[in-house]
Amino acid sequence: MRIVLNLQPNSLYDSIHELMRMAYPGCEIACTEGPGDINFDLSLAIEEQAVSITAQVDTPQGRLRRQEKCAIPQDVGRGLSNWAKQQVRAFTYDLLCELTGSNINRYGILTGMRPVKLVHRLFDQGLTPAQIEQRLLSEYRLEAEKARLLVEIASANRPYLHSADEAGQWVSVYLGIPYCPSRCYYCSFPGAVVKDYEADIVPFLEALFQEIRAISACLREQGLKVQTVYLGGGTPTVLSTYHLEQLFAELRAGGYISQHTVEITVEAGRPDTLDIPKLKVLKDNGVNRICINPQTMNDATLAVIGRHHDKEGVIKCFNWVREVGIEKINMDVIIGLPGEGLSENTNTAQQVLSLNPDNITVHTLALKRGSLMAEKENGITPQQRIRQVEAGVTLFSQLLRQAGYVPYYLYRQKYMKASMENLGYARPGAFCLYNIQMIEERQTIIGLGGGAGSKFIDLEAGRLDSFYNPKNPAAYCQSVDRLISSKVDKLRALN
Question: Is 164-494 assigned to CATH 3.80.30.20?
Fold first, then answer.
């Protein structure tokens, strides 16, 4: 199906295209002249005291016209443009629900990655949880269940956020190791599969150590303290024990690990990269949180998605971590993997819960362009498995809450199966601080290494400046001098 948009002004596309995609998944959506299977005309006029929104939609079933006039609030001030866009989104959302005969998004007009940030802004304005829920329902069109969830998560993680004064004193650091032992079929991250360890890893680490040293000098110059460190990727535990020791020595020498550092997480997502000596190195270097990520506890699915381990390998590694004494263990699972339904989800949930991890992160499969699985699933209707996925998410929520876990962070992605989210659960008191700071965007994050993202945050000025290192290891190595220079400039600009 082809949907042709005629928008006045054309900039409305940025406000409504995600809602259109949710209403008509898998359809071509174009801003062009000429007929489509559906022709969607939408215009916005900003008048002196009101905005006027008009729509005409031609479908095979007939023509639908709608118009709405919204009085401009007296206190809108410089926020008029954003307020008008919100009215357009709400108008379009209501219209699309009417056209499709269904609720197109359980999060209403919120289509971004970080909906909890909105709740924190409303808390900043002095609203109560009940008042925030009401605004989410009425102004943003959320379903009641999702509104309650967002308020619950914001209430849980808000005590861990910095004030504007505190935020200027602290950073967290992410280190990206863009290598994996193999590529999972659902993954689009263009990190490298290790083929020749010495040829691949050694030049990359030389560039990473250069970046670590240079940014360390700037952090000290600016008087910034590191609260949390997160080693991600890729799969950081593809590094040898020797190179992990080297990496942690660089981090300690650079002041990234000090008396101020309260959390050090390592993504050891692939059990086939772990052994007891490597885990002891992590423990001895202060790692107090580790991620053992089965994704599923069904061996048939693990083989299909390209994971070179089975569930017994996951259990063995989990027990090794407990034996070595690393304080917290997170386990990631994915709902929406090929061939999996409620029975497979139940099996995974029961086996993961039997291990009693400190954190469980429940992901809803997002098929990114470029993933091998997305290429294979192109012939499948996007709506085919939505009910199964939603049932799986509900199942995990019920079982995890019954077992005493609470949700503490949430983010969403494009191309997710169903209108769902990625949701982090934890035992009370076992929240991952890095995840909270990274998702809620109230602390500067310094990204070092391949594919690492930095967020330079000035809470007082309300500014956020994102900066990303190249994902390709060779491109990263070639550009490390430029990357260092840019980050030093951005860090100095904060203070």
Answer: yes
Same fold, 1-95 and 164-494: no
Both tokens of 352, joined, read 């993961």
Of the candidates 484, 413, 491, the residue with the CA atom closest to the CA atom of residue 455: 491
pLDDT in tens, 350-365: 999 999 999 999 999 8
3-class DSSP assignment, residue 284: helix
Domain positions in the chain are 1-95, 105-160, 164-494
Could you count the other beta carbons within 10 Å of the beta carbon of residue 78? Answer: 6
Predicted local distance difference test score (pLDDT) of residue 141: 98
The answer to whether 161 and 440 are in contact (CB under 8 A) is: yes
For all residues of the chain together, what is the average pLDDT? 92
* Residue 76 main-chain phi, psi, to 5 deg: -70, -35
Residue 15 exposed, middle or buried by CB count within 10 Å (0-12, 13-18, 19+) = buried
What's the whole-model pTM score?
0.92
Going 173 to 269 to 426 to 136, the CA torsion angle's sign is positive
- Between strands 225-233 and 170-177, the pairing is parallel
**Rounded Cα–Cα distance for residues 85 and 34 (Å):** 26
Distance, in Å, from the CA atom of 379 to the CA atom of 319, rounded to the nearest integer, reads 41
188-222 residue pLDDT tens: 665 588 889 999 999 999 999 999 999 999 999 99
Mean pLDDT confidence for 110-122: 96
Structure-token pair, residue 413? 């992605």
Give the homologous superfamily in CATH for domain 1-95: ABC-type transport auxiliary lipoprotein component (3.40.50.10610)
What are the structure tokens assigned to 43, written together?
């215009």
